[in-house]
């Protein structure tokens, strides 16, 4: 079974930490039962050369916004636009299986707004969310969500 790929951008390290925990959890599950897929992360940054993706992937993105209330206009995405541009590069969006959002629930309607916008923009499901660095339960839940979505889109023989 091929590993599940996850593209991400990490500004303050929270998303990177979450992906590291998700990868470690997947490895533990795989060690217990080799039919459980691994997770491989690929960090996208302003220094990343855009490339054409050739394998399906998931995305996890934090929310950093300026202005607005998250509902109306006036919101400007900050710091994460490179990931959106990467997904939109060439045919990359066609291989995206789902978007996972992170944020701070203190920001109410803006919580995971970037992920929700990417979901609409690229016509892929908003798969799951977690707050800040996520918890062990978030890692387990999101891994299960990824496995389910992966099997829906790419049934195994």
Automatic annotation (TrEMBL):
This is Class Ib ribonucleoside-diphosphate reductase assembly flavoprotein NrdI. PANTHER family: PROTEIN NRDI (PTHR37297). It holds the Pfam family Flavodoxin_NdrI. InterPro entries: Flavoprotein-like_sf, RNR_NrdI. It comes from Fructilactobacillus myrtifloralis. It comes from the Bacteria.
